[in-house]
Amino acid sequence: MKLIDCPRDAMQGWPTFIPTTQKIAYLNGLLRVGFDTLDFGSFVSPKAILQLADTTEVLDGLDLAQSGTRLLAIVANLRGAETAAQHPQIRYIGFPLSVSETFQQRNTNKSIAEAFDDVTRMQELCARTGQQQVVYLSMGFGNPYGDPWSPEILGEFTQKLDALGVGIVALSDTIGASTPATIAPPFRELTAAFPHIEFGAHLHTTPATWREKVQAAYEAGCRRFDGALGGYGGCPMAADALTGNMPTERLIEFATEKGEELHLNTEALAEAMQLNQEIFAGH
């Protein structure tokens, strides 16, 4: 079971700017924990997300020498991918591809067809740089716009991504709409149809529903999970104020119960949790 901690997702919507030095200290703390991957930042327009305008400066301050954790950066277009590709210490370049035409337009100001063109060019870019693209199928568990959604549609998108050579696909709960009934069928079908692709779950949850969601994905074959310590961030469009990112500490709890070996540094985890509270509970 792989854990991807996503401080970028926790920070991006935070109402007050988190100082660059504080971000660096927190991310270096997370790097010492031993997560598989750290979704650390994003190369997007500062006009879109001011909180992440310092991603390059943050990257320069990270101590990667003593950490086996790999870095993932999110981009919204080819320009962002080209910037990420200039930093060889970034292993993964993540791109949100929506299965909802409405949300793709709202999120990236492009159609799904145009977004697929970007995915194609990003895949070619990664082939040249030795990096790897991670495609997030946003609105992966339904959408509020009335756009079509089904496990079959997710399969069609994955078929196209597979043809391009994309090896990691994460179904993403963009608005907190996921339930076990919408989580299990896609993972069950996709993991069977595309055994060579690594499927991930980027779930949002309320405090009361986290376990049933993780359980549904796990039992359906998913072994890659995104989370954020404390469950901060993740769901600005949700109607429920309690909905946020899947708390990484809950994922650790679940993995431990299942006998999954995570090889985490528990002392470093406790220190990272303290830094997390200083940032998010202190603002």
TrEMBL record:
Q: Which GO terms describe its molecular function?
A: lyase activity
Give residue ranges for domain Pyruvate carboxyltransferase: 1-270
InterPro entries xrefs: Aldolase_TIM, HMGL, PYR_CT
Which keywords fit this entry according to its UniProt record?
A: Lyase, Metal-binding
**What superkingdom does the record give?**
Bacteria
CDD domains documented for this protein: DRE_TIM_HMGL (cd07938)
Family, per entry: Belongs to the HMG-CoA lyase family.
PANTHER family in the record? HYDROXYMETHYLGLUTARYL-COA LYASE
What protein am I looking at? Hydroxymethylglutaryl-CoA lyase
Protein source organism: Hymenobacter yonginensis
For this protein's source organism, the top of the classification is: Bacteria, Pseudomonadati, Bacteroidota, Cytophagia, Cytophagales
